[in-house]
Design goal:
With about 300 residues, the chain is of the alpha/beta class. It is built from eleven helices and eight strands. An eight-stranded mixed beta sheet has the order 3-2-1-4-7-6-8-5. Helix 2 links the parallel strand 2 and strand 3.
Amino acid sequence: MAEISASVVIPVLNGEDTIGDLLAALTRQRRVAGVDELIVVDNGSTDRTREIVAQYNVTLLHEPKRGPSAARNQGLYNSSNELVVYLDADTVPSRDWIREICAPFEDPGVIIVSGRTISYPPSSPAERFIARQGPLQPEHNLGRKIFPFMSSRNLAVRREAALSIGGWAEDMPTAEDMDFCTRLRRAYGAEVVFQPNAVVFHRERRTDEQLRKQAWTYGEGLADMYLRYPQDANWSIKNTLQVACALVTRAVYPELLRVKRFFGFSGENQREFFEYLRFWSYWYWRGFFSMYRRRVRKEL
C-alpha cells in the first residue's frame, strides 16, 4: 500500500490491568511506513497506569477533564499525522491491524474507517451474552435506520475532518461515537467504511453489575441522541409501544424456554442467553427513559 501518515491515540483511565497488553501488541505490529506516533492520554488514573505506560516508547499526555471524548480530543489536537486511529485501553490489536485499518484511506474520498472487534473467550454469563449479542458490532450498527455508527474502540479518521467538526462531544459521557459519526456524515456525506480484517480483541464486562451499568449508560446515550437530533428522529407514542411490546416478549420468552427445557426441547445455553437479553433490555430502556424524562423536564 502507499505510504500513510497515522497517529494512534489511546484514552485510558485506571487501565493497569490491560494497557500493558495493548502497548505490547502495538510494538509487535507489522511495520507500516508513516505510522510513527503512539499517544496515550491518561484521564486521571489513580492506579499504576502511568508507570506502565512509561515503560514504552509512546507519548504520554494528561487530560484532567474526565470523559473519553476529552481524552480523545487531547490526542487529536496533539497528533501530527494525516490520520488519527483510536483504540480503547482494554483492547488488543491483531498483528496486521494498523495496516488493515489504514488501507482504505488510499481512496481520498474515505473519511472514516472502522475495524472488527472480537470478544475474548468468555468465562462468565455476562461475557457470554455480550460475545453473542455484540451490541457494538458493525453488523448491528452500520445497518441502523437511525444514527448508524461504529464504535470508537477501533476507529480511524482523517485528522482534518475530525478537527473541522470540533472533535468529540465532550458533554456526552456515552454515545459519543454515535454523535461523532453523525456529525461527520452530515458535514461530508461520509459513511463509515467497514474493514473486517482490522481486528482487535476486547475484554467484555464480566459481572452482572458491570453489564447492568453498561446497558443503562447505552440507553442514556440513545436518549441523548434523540434529543440532540430531533430533525433526524423524534420519539413518539408509537416508539414507546414498540419498546413495551418488545420488553413483554423478552420477559416471557425465557420462562417459555424454561418449560421447553423441562421437556427436553431447549438447551441451557439458549435459556441463559434470553435471560440476559431480558436483563439487558430492561436496564437499557430504563436508562433511556430516565435520561429522556430528565432532559425534557429540564428544558421545559
